[in-house]
Amino acid sequence: MVFFGYMVFSIVLGLLADRYGRWKILLLSFLWAAYFSLLTSFAPSYIWFVFLRAMVGGGVSGHAQGLIIKTEFLPTKYRGYLLPLSQVFWLAGSLLIIGLASVMNPTIGWRWLIRIASIPGILLILVFKKGFLLCLQFIPESARFNVSTGNTGAALATLQRIARMNRAAVPEGQLREPAKERRGRFKDLIHPKYLRTTLQIWIIWLGIAFAYYGVILASAELLERDLVCGSAAPPLQDSSDDSEESHSPCYCHMFGPAAYQTMIISTAGEIALNPVNILSINLLGRRLSLCITMGCTALFFLLLNICTSSAGMVGFLFMLRALVSANFNTIYIYTAEVYPTTMRALGMGTSGALCRVGAMVAPFISQVLMSASFLGALCLFSSVCIICAISAVTLPIETKGRALQQVK
């Protein structure tokens, strides 16, 4: 349901961002996600919990506008280096929440975990006026967007600020407004010029999310069931617990310190290949780099079936998290670069929606099919990655060294 909320609102917020601006949607999404996240901690029932988490997913879907703003400000030669560095902050948040969960879940419970995690957003809400002014000062609206709407005055003011900060002069000349055209139209995504690119991007996004969340959920399944050589059977339950819940196939076991430690190690894998991924993106190009990492992801999914030790399993999970993270890095950059300004946010929004379809399917494979056929689940994940690798290498446009397009 979190992914369902993300899927629905990703399209809506992408459409609004192309029409009304990236910055407004970015700020709205942060306030929205923080508000509903806090409400989740007070959910009186499971139904309310699920509904509120879906609304959180809807708010988080707008965070992609931050990447759009960065893409539209960065010079061509630096985009391939600086955009992937955002992954460092994603990793920091992931490690922080695992660390908090390991301390708070066994002691004061998940409700307080959510409340603590909501503090940054709550502070922004409490000081909304001051926060609004700070964001307006340090995160200006995209100059490219302002030019595309004919607001050349605002775009020029932003460029003059940038020039002052860098102690440089604004180049002589005038900003020219492009030909008037509607922005954020779905039919532009399936225009003959972009149809093949759009369809292949959608396939890749769906497959990458399927693999990414499949790895995360499979990690939890492997940790809980201890699927290592010689101990493939689920751990025995305490015989003193004869409740109906304990005999349910959906019975959950609390993670211990070792499990949280393994999750931290595998999550740290998301940054392990970041320097290599950056070099690959800039030297080999976006298409070939994505093809290679998707192919390696397929291979490591199959390696999970090898009879190994716990350390070996952690190593495989470490590499898988590194590879699936590299896949996301590359496709985010490619999608932001391949579409023109007038449809960039919508292109990212629809891709994010298809991405969440893959994310919604992943739990059924990682936690249901894997219980019935471990090898079958791994083969399915691997096959999807191979399809994505083929789709990546055959994309019709390479965006390495390509200037951002302003209009279709």
Layout of strands and helices, then pairs:
Layout: H1 2-20, H2 22-40, H3 46-60, H4 64-73, H5 76-82, H6 86-104, H7 110-117, H8 119-126, H9 128-138, H10 143-148, H11 152-165, H12 186-189, H13 195-225, H14 257-272, H15 274-283, H16 286-303, H17 310-338, H18 344-372, H19 374-393
Helix pairs in contact: 1-2, 1-3, 1-18, 2-3, 2-4, 2-8, 6-7, 6-14, 8-9, 13-14, 13-17, 13-18, 13-19, 14-17, 15-16, 16-17, 16-19, 17-18, 18-19
Quick tags:
19 helices; single chain; mainly alpha; 408 residues
Descriptive account of the structure:
The relative contact order is 0.15. The protein is globular, with a radius of gyration of 23 Å. The protein is mainly alpha-helical and 408 residues long. It is built from 19 helices and no strands.
Short structural description:
By secondary structure, the chain is mainly α.
The SS-based structural class is mainly alpha
Helix count, DSSP H or I runs of 4 or more residues: 19
Assembly of the depicted chains: single chain
Q: Helical amount among residues, as a percent range?
A: over 70%
Main sheet specs: none
Low-pLDDT residue spans:
230-240, 244-248
Overall pLDDT level: 81
Number of strands: 0
